[in-house]
Amino acid sequence: MPRNRVDGVIASWSHNCAAEVTVAVLGGAWKPVVLSLLGRNEVMRFGELRRAAGEPTPRVLTRQLRELEADGLITRTVYAEVPPKVEYGLTECGRNVQPLLDAMAEWGRDYAADVRRESAGGGADRENDPGDAAGR
Amino acid sequence: MPRNRVDGVIASWSHNCAAEVTVAVLGGAWKPVVLSLLGRNEVMRFGELRRAAGEPTPRVLTRQLRELEADGLITRTVYAEVPPKVEYGLTECGRNVQPLLDAMAEWGRDYAADVRRESAGGGADRENDPGDAAGR
DNA sequence: CGGGATCCCGCCGGATACTG
DNA sequence: CAGTATCCGGCGGGATCCCG
Predict the structure, then answer these.
(1) What pLDDT does residue A105 have?
(2) Is the peptide bond between B84 and the residue preceding it cis, with omega within 30 degrees of 0?
(3) Full set of structural domains in chain A with CATH
(4) Are the C-beta atoms of residues B111 and A18 closer than 8 Å to each other?
(5) Cα gap B88→B69, rounded to integer Å
(6) Residue B75 confidence (pLDDT)
(7) Where do the DSSP E strands lie in A1-135?
(8) Cβ–Cβ under 8 Å, residues A119 and B70
(9) Which segment of the chain is annotated as a signal peptide (chains A, B) (predicted)?
(10) Which end of chain A is more exposed for a tag (fewer CB within 10 A), N or C?
């Protein structure tokens, strides 16, 4: 059970926010995409997943998948045949994270829209003027 | 408007999941803690924030705060007095992210509990047995 | 008090090449 | 097809010291 990756984070969130655990689990370069793809496709083969995710290099995708597997979010099923065939799917934990992932995606979209808006539209910069705050 | 940090991520989530934007914004080492602290305290000074977060090094905390500011989540108010006084607070965007942060924290807690459970309790490992899957 | 300057290092992600 | 092996640059985070 090589869950050592997130273990450090889990161990030290006494004063930390538990959200850091979530970031540690979902924070890989291709993990959100992979999870959302598997959320819609039940099972996917390696190449299929790779193409759909946007052609990450095999090495990187492999590691992302192994980490997600070690963290208990996805399953990996190897079929002993030639040519090789490996199928990836979601565990229950992986399915449980979908609503959260959706919420994160929604916020991300809204945030990106905000950024675009203020980049394009006139910069309505608000200045903080402490002014008379020279107390003490 | 140095929002260049997340701009790259925002620009390239055509096939990606928008959740990556969220990770890019909240993905710093001390960002979740800072945001949740500011969510409960309205305004906080640098040292106050530092102690409450768990004593990160000033340099690191400063950068986290600058990034959050550049990303539009927090405000930074400098009072021109001696000794120096700087107060941090949430922008509207920073307040909007609180519910999501809570959801992430909740999932993180549940996940950590799951991990602890299966580490302690007997490993109820489920094996995948493709068995008769040698099709084609 | 609230940082900035400098140095360091581990890790993450990508490119390229090779294989059972 | 589904990876593995090797090399590499960048940067995120920490330690330590110094400053207005």
Answers:
(1) 96
(2) no
(3) 4-120 (1.10.10.10)
(4) no
(5) 9
(6) 98
(7) 43-45, 74-79, 85-90
(8) no
(9) none
(10) C
Global pTM reads: 0.88
- Using a 10 angstrom Cβ sphere, with 0-12 exposed, 13-18 middle and 19 or more buried, the burial of residue B105 is buried
d(CA B26, CA B32): 6
Going through A11-133 in order, the beta strands assigned E by DSSP cover 43-45, 74-79, 85-90
Q: Which helix (H) or strand (E) holds A134?
A: none
The secondary structure of residue B126, as a DSSP letter, is P
Average pLDDT in the A105-112 region?
Answer: 95
What's the CA–C1' distance between A11 and C3, in Å?
A: 30
pLDDT digit string, tens, across residues A31-86: 999 999 999 999 999 999 999 999 999 999 999 999 999 999 999 999 999 999 99
The answer to whether the beta carbon of residue A20 comes closer than 7 angstroms to any atom of strand D is no
Give the nearest chain A residue to B89 (CA atoms).
A128
